C-alpha cells in the first residue's frame, strides 16, 4: 500500500487515524513522493513480484491531491519497468476532487477506484467533513456519478462507526441504489492511550502490548457487539435477494473461508505481514495500521523492498498474529474463520483475564455462527458446479443449523 502524499488530505474526518501521522515527520515536510523515490518504488515493486500480474495500491491521505500529471507519470514508469507484465492499479479516494478528466484517465488506464462513503447524507456527514468542517456528501455523490458516467470500475468503502452501525439496512440499501455493486465495510476501532502510556506523541494509542493497562476507545468507535448485528442484518437481506448481484467483501471472504479457498483478506489470515505500507519518503512499515517508529523496516532508498519484506523483523511481526493468540481464541470454534482478526484490535481481556482478546470478538463470533449454515450450503452448490445464488430459491428454515 503506497501513500505518495502521506497523510495529507483535503478532508478532516473526525475519526481519521492517519491525519496525525504528519507529526511523525519534521515540521514543514513536503508530503509528496519525490521523483527518485517514486521511480525506485515502482521498479522495486514490479521486480519483487513473481506473478504475471502486478497490482499497485495508491492511498493517502487523498492521493488525487497530487494532480493528474503525477499519475500520468506513474503509468509511464510502470510501462517502463513492466517487462511485459500486466500492471493493475487501485486508488482509494474520498471522491471530492474527481472531475471528467480524472475519470477519463481512470477509465483509459483501467484503474479500480475505491470510493469512501459512509451512507446517506445524514450518516455520511456526521464525521466526513472538510477542513472548514462543512459536509462533503454532495461532492462525494458527484464524484460517484462521474465514475459511473465514464464507466470506471469502482467499489465503495464504508467506515462503520458508532453512528451508522445503528442503521444497517438503510446504509446497505443506499449503497445498492447508488450503484455500488462491490461494498466494503470497515469497523471503526480507535483506542485512546492509557494513563502514562507512550504513544509517539500521537492522539491515538499504539497497538497494544501484553500487560498494558486497558484504555477506552473513542466515542465514534463502533460498539464491540453491534458490528456483528450490523453485518447480520445486511447479510439476511443480501442472502435473500442479492447473491451474485451485489458483492459484499465480508460475505465473499466468508464464502472463501468455508469453501477452502482462503479469506483473501489479511484480517482473517492465520499470520499476517504481507500488507506493508510505504510512506511518501520511502519509509516502509510492517502494516498500514502499524505506522509507528518501532515498526519501520527501513527505507527503499537504502534497502530493497524484497529484503525488508523477507527480513527476520517482518517475519516475526507476521507470525506474532498466531503465536500471541490467547487460549480463549485458540479453543474457539470459529478460530478457523477469524484467527483473532487484526492484532491492532487485540486490547481487551478474555473472560479468564488473559490479555490479547480482540475488541470485536463478540461481533465476529456472532456473525460467523449466524452465517455458518448458509456458507455450508453455498459451498455445496459450488462443489456441485452450481451457482451460490441458488440459495435464494431455498427454504431457509430447512437449512441444517
Would you summarize the structure shown here?
This protein is of the alpha/beta class.
3D structure, described in words:
The chain is α/β, with parallel strands linked by helices. It is 35% helix and 12% strand. The chain is built from 13 helices and eleven strands. The protein has helices spanning 35-48, 68-81, 100-108, 121-127, 137-149, 168-177, 226-241, 249-258, 305-309, 312-323, 327-330, 335-338, 361-383, and strands at 53-58, 86-93, 111-116, 154-160, 182-187, 247-248, 277-278, 283-285, 296-299, 348-349, 355-357. Strands 1-2-3-4-5-6 form a six-stranded parallel sheet. A three-stranded antiparallel sheet has the order 7-8-9. Strands 10-11 form a two-stranded antiparallel ribbon. The chain is globular and about 60 Å long. It starts with 34 loop residues before the first helix and ends in an 18-residue tail after the last helix.
Main beta sheet strand tally, sense and closure = 6 strands, parallel
Can you give the helix content as a percent range? 25-40%
Question: What coarse outline follows from CA principal-axis ratios?
Answer: globular
Distance between the termini: 40 Å
Secondary structure elements and pairings:
Layout: H1 35-48, E1 53-58, H2 68-81, E2 86-93, H3 100-108, E3 111-116, H4 121-127, H5 137-149, E4 154-160, H6 168-177, E5 182-187, H7 226-241, E6 247-248, H8 249-258, E7 277-278, E8 283-285, E9 296-299, H9 305-309, H10 312-323, H11 327-330, H12 335-338, E10 348-349, E11 355-357, H13 361-383
Parallel strand pairs: 1-2, 2-3, 3-4, 4-5, 5-6
Antiparallel strand pairs: 7-8, 8-9, 10-11
Amino acid at each position: 500500500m503506497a501513500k505518495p502524499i502521506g497523510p495529507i488530505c483535503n478532508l478532516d474526518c473526525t475519526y481519521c487515524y492517519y491525519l496525525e501521522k504528519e507529526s511523525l515527520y519534521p515540521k514543514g515536510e513536503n508530503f509528496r513522493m519525490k521523483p527518485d523515490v517514486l521511480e525506485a518504488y515502482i521498479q522495486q515493486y514490479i521486480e519483487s513480484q513473481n506473478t504475471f500480474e502486478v497490482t499497485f495500491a495508491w492511498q493517502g491521505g487523498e492521493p488525487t491531491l497530487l494532480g493528474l500529471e503525477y499519475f500520468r507519470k506513474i503509468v509511464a514508469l510502470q510501462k517502463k519497468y513492466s517487462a511485459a507484465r500486466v500492471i493493475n492499479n487501485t486508488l482509494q479516494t474520498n471522491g471530492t476532487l474527481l472531475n471528467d478528466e480524472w475519470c477519463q484517465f481512470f477509465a483509459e488506464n483501467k484503474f479500480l477506484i475505491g470510493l469512501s462513503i459512509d451512507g446517506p447524507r445524514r450518516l455520511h456527514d456526521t464525521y466526513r467533513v472538510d477542513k472548514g468542517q462543512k459536509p462533503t456528501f454532495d461532492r462525494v455523490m458527484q464524484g460517484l456519478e462521474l465514475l459511473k458516467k465514464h464507466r470506471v470500475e469502482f467499489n465503495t468503502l464504508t467506515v462503520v462507526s458508532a453512528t451508522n452501525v445503528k442503521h444497517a439496512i438503510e446504509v446497505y440499501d443506499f449503497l445498492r441504489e447508488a450503484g455500488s455493486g462491490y461494498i466494503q465495510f470497515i469497523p471503526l476501532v480507535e483506542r485512546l492511550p492509557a494513563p502514562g502510556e507512550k504513544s509517539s506523541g500521537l492522539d491515538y494509542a499504539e497497538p497494544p502490548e501484553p500487560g498494558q493497562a486497558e484504555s477506552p476507545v473513542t466515542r465514534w468507535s463502533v460498539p464491540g457487539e453491534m458490528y456483528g448485528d450490523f453485518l447480520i442484518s445486511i447479510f439476511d437481506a443480501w442472502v435473500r435477494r442479492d447473491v451474485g448481484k451485489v458483492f459484499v467483501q465480508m460475505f465473499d471472504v466468508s464464502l472463501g473461508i468455508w469453501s477452502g479457498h482462503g479469506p483473501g483478506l489479511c484480517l482473517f489470515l492465520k499470520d499476517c505481514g504481507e500488507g506493508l505500507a510505504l510512506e511518501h519518503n520511502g519509509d516502509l512499515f510492517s502494516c498500514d495500521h502499524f505506522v509507528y517508529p518501532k515498526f519501520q523496516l527501513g527505507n527503499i532508498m537504502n534497502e530493497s523492498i524484497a529484503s525488508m519484506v523477507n527480513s527476520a523483523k517482518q517475519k516475526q511481526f507476521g507470525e506474532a498474529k498466531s503465536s500471541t493468540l490467547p487460549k480463549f481464541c485458540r479453543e474457539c470454534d470459529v478460530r478457523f474463520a477469524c484467527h483473532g482478526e487484526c492484532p491492532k484490535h487485540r486490547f481487551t481481556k478474555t473472560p479468564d483475564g488473559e490479555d490479547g482478546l480482540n475488541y470485536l470478538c463478540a461481533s465476529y463470533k456472532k456473525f460467523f455462527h449466524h452465517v455458518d449454515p448458509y456458507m455450508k450450503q453455498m459451498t455445496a452448490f459450488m462443489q456441485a458446479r452450481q451457482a451460490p445464488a441458488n440459495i435464494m430459491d431455498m427454504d431457509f428454515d430447512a437449512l441444517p443449523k
